[in-house]
Amino acid sequence: MCGIVGILGKHEVAPTLVEALKRLEYRGYDSAGIATVNDGALERRRAIGKLVNLSDLLVHQPLAGKSGIGHTRWATHGAPTLTNTHPHQTRRVAVVHNGIIENYRELRADLAQAGITHQTETDTETVALLAQHYIDQGATPADAVRRTVARLEGAYALAFLFEDEPDLMIAARKGSPLAIGHGDGEVYIGSDAIALAPMTNRVTYLEEGDCAVLTRSTITITDPAGTPVVRTPRTIRVDAALIDKAGHKHFMSKEIAQQPTVIGETIAAYVAADASDINLPGEGIDFTKINRLTMASCGTAYYACLTAKYWFEQLAGLPVEVDFASEFRYRTPPISDGTAALFVSQSGETADTLAALRYCAGKAQSILSVTNVPESSIARESDLTLPIYAGAEIGVASTKAFTCQLTVLLLLALKAAHARGRISSQTLQEKLTAVRGLPAIFNQAMSIEDHVRSISQRLAESRDALFLGRGLMFPIALEGALKLKEISYIHAEAYASGELKHGPIALIDEKMPVVVMAPRDALFDKTVSNMQEVMARGGKVILITDQSGATSASEGVWQTIILPDIDFDLTPILYALPVQFLAYHTAVTKGTDVDQPRNLAKSVTVE
Ligand code: F6R
After folding, report:
1. What is the predicted pLDDT for the residue at 542?
2. Which residue, 35, 164, 270, 591, has most beta carbons within 10 Å?
3. CB-based burial label for 350 (10 Å; 0-12, 13-18, 19+)
4. Does the Cβ of 351 fall within 6 Å of ligand 1?
5. Ligand 1 in reach of 353 Cβ (< 6 A)
6. Peptide bond into 260 cis (omega under 30)
7. Strand spans (E) along 206-348
8. What spacing in Å lies between the alpha carbon of 193 and ligand 1's midpoint?
């Protein structure tokens, strides 16, 4: 996590650095800082808390200079104090870092033996001190950086600036993404193309182990062996509306409201005009040659995978294994012949998901990914990437990316079902016609918001909450609990409805709100029985169902939220909406920081 940026510019860089950091704040917001070279000297400004604190500081203590680096921090090593805030600086070197240096203790000990002491608790200061150490031994800045990174274990995207070198910036990456932006007599680096968007849309992504020596007129990239390499620049399309809330109070609210549109765009990108087939990019995937699917992801994306397991198994008869990427990567699971591996990631940069993908590369028949960022590491390292067309998602809590991921995964499962002879062409067409109707039904469902807001005002008084669901509703219950805890800080858990009586039912009392997700599908009666068990013990039930479910089962429940009827295979996508609204309005009632909840970051590029 953390966002880094660097500029060798023609004008004063401090305002542009801050603007770029604003676009990277989704990667962390514990503290922020910038450093520049001015009149040959390195100088920095740093502030703890959000970027706005750094902006305020710069009003009173401006920072001059046409070369600079900046950082927005998600703390890993050391508390979010001013001392630990980046850039870290020695006499001649300033550095910003995204990632984790795993061997920093050994390196610290080595430096201590040479009489070099640290002032901070960070792993990044070690990098700055090592580079300084090599410069003191006579190395050029470029050699000092190469010798430094050769000693680093772990993940890093680094940008270095040097005293007396106003036309030099050095960048290096391993495990964390880094892009070089090409300007007119200027050059930039950034954790992603979004940060660089106001300056340029011509971007070169560094590859694993690359080191780039940049001046305003030259870019020299070398691989870990020091051999010069050529990396091809690309032209990037970046969402212009990125940092506009479009009249909403929060990005999360805007992103919830965008769902009918972006789900519609996602469907339009995949479903043929006559709803007869699903068009996949490139050569697609031959599901007749696959007998198993393995999926690994994190957080909300993991719940999308869990939902897809039900779809692939029930619709396509394809066995699916799903795991948290953080577990999968160290479990060394055997990958049998005929297995395809599928990874879901909004950012396409999640460190654990990327590591799981790399574990499968070469072992699995094909590497597939579903991502919102087509230029991301996960997309670039996949055999086939399925984009989701959600547009930039800024709110830390994922909403529209989740429903777009579900949409693509359902389409993929239907494609597999048809290819494997489990559904006829006519059934496929019927299902795709239903999918095409989803945006309109989703739009209709937006009218529940006022009702959910009033429920949320009561929910905000609770300390805990439970979410229950069966079958396709179980992953959505998990997602509902995650949404509620991450933005409202209310402790929430989700259980498969049938599991309740095996332990969690002990938690039920009159104070416990229990959200029961139950469209009137084949499992409805079973879930309603579990709901009765909750009500018999005084639990306050919020039932989320359709009209038929409400008519048959809402007696005695505390609140009922009624959604429009929809094909049951599509219910996970539609039923994500009420749990998003519940979490959002509960958080708004509690006054928490909805878009940037405490301790979180949008893109988790450390393990
Ligand atoms: C929760 C949330 C996270 C992410 C997770 C994976 O609202 O957004 O749980 O889903 O960090 O991120 P991506 O999808 O970028 O791999």
Report:
1. 98
2. 35
3. buried
4. no
5. yes
6. no
7. 211-214, 219-222, 234-235, 292-297, 320-324, 339-345
8. 19
Sheet architecture: strand order including 513-517:
491-496, 464-469, 513-517, 540-546, 559-563
State both tokens at 17. 């650095």
Establish whether 602 is a catalytic residue: yes
Most distant CA pair in the chain, distance:
81
Active-site residue, 501 included:
no
Residue type, 353: T
Q: What is the pLDDT of residues 416-428, one digit of tens each?
A: 999 999 999 999 9
**Residue 353 Cα: closest atom of ligand 1:** 16
Instruction: Quote the CA–CA distance of 68 and 394 in Å, as a whole number.
Output: 25
Helix (H, G, I), strand (E, B) or coil at 496: strand
Q: Is pLDDT at 343 greater than 60 in this prediction?
A: yes
pLDDT value for 241: 46
- The alpha carbon of 391 is separated from its chain's Cα centroid by a whole number of angstroms, namely 13
Position 278: which residue type?
A: I
What band does 77 get if pLDDT is binned at 50, 70 and 90?
A: confident
**Residue 480 Cβ < 6 Å to ligand 1:** no
Q: Atom 5 (ligand 1): residue with closest C-alpha?
A: 299
* Cα 300 to averaged position of ligand 1 atoms, centre (Å): 5
Query: Which residues does residue 344 pair with via DSSP β-bridges, in sequence order?
Result: 370
| Active-site residue (options: 22, 66, 415, 602) | 602
Angle at 439 between CA 349 and CA 301, to 5 degrees: 25
Per-residue pLDDT tens digits for 544-553: 999 999 999 9
CA distance 356 to 323: 10
376 lines ligand 1 (CB under 6 A): no
Would you state the structure tokens that stand for residue 549, as one six-digit string? 């479910």
Q: What residues pair up with 205 in beta bridges, in sequence order?
A: 179
**Statement: residue 244 has pLDDT above 80:** no
- Count how many residues are written for the chain: 607
